[in-house]
Amino acid sequence: MQQQSEKTLKIAEKAFDHFTQGLVTGEWEGFLDMLTEDFTFWFPMGKFHGLNEGKDRAREFFEYVSASFSSGLNLTSLDRVTSNETTVVFEFRDEGLLLNQPYKNRVAVSFDIRRDKICGYREYFGSDGKSF
Q1: Helices 55-68 and 2-25: angle between axes, nearest 10 degrees
Q2: What kind of fold does domain 2-125 have according to CATH?
Q3: Is 91 helix (H, G, I), strand (E, B) or coil?
Q4: pLDDT mean for each 10 residues of the chain (132 residues)
Q5: How many other C-beta atoms can be found within 10 angstroms of the C-beta atom of residue 125?
Q6: pTM score, two decimals?
């Protein structure tokens, strides 16, 4: 189990590097290449609220994120990483301009790993009153 947990963490860390690069630059191919074809993701609000399925839908979502944060979204701190054999959660703070308005938030994203790919993603966010 320990060996599987370590492998899962390494895969998730690589995906998270691609994910944060996508947030900053709008270049998502590295992250999208790490997704399974039957990838699912859950988002808490807006156009993508709820469960979404498929790699094409994921591409649409991440392009939407980049359009909303046209000057990029920067990770300002990685607060915690929690993992087990199949799932890794990254808790972080980010900031940028959301539709040209100042934005800061606390976010948790969860990656589910199957073999060497990301098969599931869940995102949760909300300010603690200190992020602004």
Answers
A1: 50
A2: Nuclear Transport Factor 2; Chain: A, (3.10.450)
A3: strand
A4: 86 98 97 97 94 97 95 95 96 93 93 97 78 48
A5: 15
A6: 0.91
